Amino acid sequence: MSMCIATYRSYDDKADFNKKAASIAVGLTVGSWTELPEAQKAQMEKHLGKVLSVEAYEPANAAQGERYADIRIAYPDINFSRDIPALLVTVFGKLSMDGRIKLIDLDFSEGFASAFPGPKFGLQGIRDYLGVQERPLLMSIFKSVVGHDLGGLRDQFYKQALGGVDLIKDDEILFENPLTPLEKRVETCMEAARQASEETGQKLLYAVNLTGPTSQLAANARKAIAAGANALLFNVLAYGYDALHELSSDSGISVPIAAHPAMAGAMYPSPHYGISASLLLGKLMRLAGADLALFPSPYGSVVMPKAENLAVKEALLQPLHGLKASFPVPSAGIHPGLVPLILQDFGTDVVVNAGGGIHGHPMGTAAGGQAFRQAIAATLAGTPLRQAAAQPGHEALASAIEAWGIREA
């Protein structure tokens, strides 16, 4: 029988975790079991959840409230349609309100996963489009955007592009507005991209923020693409994974999609409630079709513990039912002095994503991008950043190090 497996971490000082697991398996599937007549049990057996394992942890001298168990339960695919909302409601809908319990992981069956094509481009497709195979990619962010007209937006875009970035993304709070309407914004920024490319000789992806009512998302995506957009930014958790799946599966939306983690802080940080970061921002984003997935870095202003960061990275990169890998994009608080640490933790298959670390550079926005590119090149060559910064032509890196320093492991 084809089944999807959910792993939970349940905290309780007194519970019999085996009984609790059995109650979950029955309650989230057939509703009751022992009271059913034998003939009805035979009929309902194929719908019944199965407890696969219960591993209890009672640390010595543990504080009250720290007794927990990891519980694995298999849910028959026959119980739900092949879409992410149906699966999440089945395995965690009502249960999410039943005390201190967190959804740690989901293992999809082959049958369920077959309904999802996953990322259309994925990590390798983005590398191929940009013609960059060996090094990490560099992304910059519009800061700020609200209240700017098209001229101000174009100027900011052009300066970012001159710095040698590979991707530029809208801020996630840039919505449709009279000053910078979607199609005009795309046309203006892509023209700036073409101008910068003539000087830098490199390609660039512009991830324009896709917004509006859910019913209009696909139409707005097509408008953006018709105007020249070559990537989209999407606030997945505000709209739902199914909206991302619809966009990524649409043959008329033929550009990479970057998934923004807005709203994730309401779901993953607690050890006792919500959904793990690796599932929320990793595995489910990839299943739904994100080509790039942004998540808080362990280094900066919106901190996620490093162990969770690396778990998100693995969920985006490791084999998963034949789906393409999604590009990991650790974000927030990134400056050039962090580049060696980022590459140490994430390897070269990572997007270095910076906002203030580019725009706040003492020598200007273009120099901010150049400082990152110099830091990346030095790290890949095995050259310490201070040594690289002392070389002729590396004034941008030297200025960045003076401003932000170098973060050691």
Structure, explained:
The chain is α/β, with parallel strands linked by helices. It folds into two domains: 3-113, Alpha-Beta Plaits (2-Layer Sandwich), CATH 3.30.70; 122-404, TIM Barrel, CATH 3.20.20. 40% of the residues lie in helices and 17% in strands. It has 17 helices and twelve strands. The strands form two sheets. Strands 11-10-9-8-7-6-5-12 form an eight-stranded parallel β-sheet, sandwiched between helices. Helix 6 runs parallel beside helix 7 (182-200) and helix 15 (365-380) packs across helix 17. The longest helix is centred in the middle third of the chain and has 19 residues, at 182-200. The chain is globular, with a radius of gyration of 24 Å.
Can you give me a brief rundown of this structure?
40% of the residues lie in helices and 17% in strands. By secondary structure, the protein is of the alpha/beta class.
Assigned CATH architecture of the largest domain: Alpha-Beta Barrel
Q: Tell me the major beta sheet.
A: 8 strands, parallel
Rg: 24 Å
Number of helices: 17
Average pLDDT figure:
92
Strand order of the largest sheet: 11-10-9-8-7-6-5-12
User: Would you state the CATH class of the largest domain?
Assistant: Alpha Beta
Draw up the topology in text.
Layout: E1 3-11, H1 17-27, H2 38-44, E2 50-57, E3 68-76, H3 84-93, E4 101-107, H4 110-113, H5 122-130, E5 137-141, H6 150-162, E6 167-169, H7 182-200, E7 205-209, H8 217-226, E8 231-235, H9 236-239, H10 241-249, E9 257-260, H11 277-288, E10 292-296, H12 306-317, E11 327-331, H13 339-346, E12 351-354, H14 356-359, H15 365-380, H16 385-389, H17 395-404
